[in-house]
Amino acid sequence: MLSALRKRNESKIQEDIEAEQRKQARAQIERRVFGESRKIFTPEILGDGELWWRDHYQWLEGCGYSLRPRYHPNWSPSWKSDRERETSEDSVRPLRSHILDATRTLDGTYVTLKVIKKSVHPYEAEIGQYFSSEPVASAPANHCIPIYEVLQPPNDDDRLILIMPLLKSYSKPRFDTFGEVIECFRQLFEGLQFMHSHCVAHRDCMNLNTMMDARSLFIDAYHPQRQKIKRDLSGVARHYTRTQRPPKYYFIDFGLSRRYDPSNTNPLEDQIWGGDKTVPEFQKSPAPCNPFPTDIYYIGNLIREDFLQTKIGFEFIEPLISDMVHDDPGKRPTIDEVVVRFDEIRKGLSGWKLRSRVVDNEEGTFSKLIRGTGHWTRRVKFVAGRTPAVPTAS
């Protein structure tokens, strides 16, 4: 009992540390994009980044994109009490003020708008547009977030606005079966292999930059900033399992990415610290590194931290992940080797294993009972209906 309590306390401390790190990273990005922040975080007052969106509300509307009511030039809070504020959609601030959602007025599609500065990330738009242009865009193995359009704000030569699909964190809602996780791994490996085959190193492909298209997964439209809740904050957003509605997974954020000449088989780049601060080669020396083995580490560490260390039953992939996160970049497999080895691992998994439920290390007895009952009910239906154990996105 004491051991379990200590583990929960340690986990909570780690979550608090990570939350503070994310807050600091957000503030740093906002300063780069919008200048010095007033550090105002109350729902009643727009922050610096939000003021930028408000000032561009009508221009964006003219471009075919409608922002939420909070950013209308004449907005005033709709709530009169703290209790009302909790259910008022216009009280919701953005998680990162340089990224905002909008509605494409042409067809009602929800999209993501991201402000970048060319002086800070000179290659982001170029690489994103490369993967969004034909014939590359329609390749099934392409898992780079599509860029629908790039807008140039008026009287601002440095900023650009990237218009992209509204995506969701790759790991929420939770995975139900091992088959669902296996398909996620397959798509991530396939997507990184596609990028590398086009001589592009992502250089920051960690969990926060791994997302999914969840439009088919959700019964109710979820709020872009509170993705467990309905868009109007009226309750929890209902969803299917990934077996019922398989999503497609995407890599986002090419701010640190680079594209190389195919003749350069060993590109060396100055180290750039992305979201994952554990890269072994960055700890040892400031010397330039080949970014492609670092990409392998990022994906391997994503799987290690989000699955091997937090969930039960992933021993089958441990040898591959151990090689991917090897301290010596020269001893890590290439992405082509990863794909081949993973395919052999996948072939060796039984249907029983693939349909088994993914269980968290910290899951309690009551949760196991409730989730296990729901899982077995679905599993019987899936087997009877011949639903594939490994769901594949169309």
The strand order across the widest sheet is 1-2-3-5-4
What is the mean pLDDT? 91
Task: State the oligomer.
Answer: single chain
* Computed structural class: alpha+beta
The percentage helix is: 25-40%
Order of helices and strands: HHHEHEEHEEEHEEEEHHEHHHEH
Measured between the Cα atoms of the first and last residue, the distance is 46 Å
Number of strands: 12
Largest sheet: 5 strands, antiparallel
**β-strand amount:** 5-15%
Runs in which pLDDT lies below 50 for 5 or more consecutive residues are: none
Compute the number of helices: 12
Characterize the structure shown:
This protein is α+β, with helices and mostly antiparallel strands and 394 residues long. Helix content is 38%, strand content 11%. The protein has twelve helices and twelve strands. Strands 1-2-3-5-4 form a five-stranded antiparallel β-sheet. A three-stranded antiparallel β-sheet has the order 6-8-9. The chain has a two-stranded antiparallel ribbon with strand order 7-10. α6 (178-197) packs antiparallel against α8 and α6 (178-197) packs antiparallel against α10. It is globular, with a radius of gyration of 22 Å. The termini are far apart.
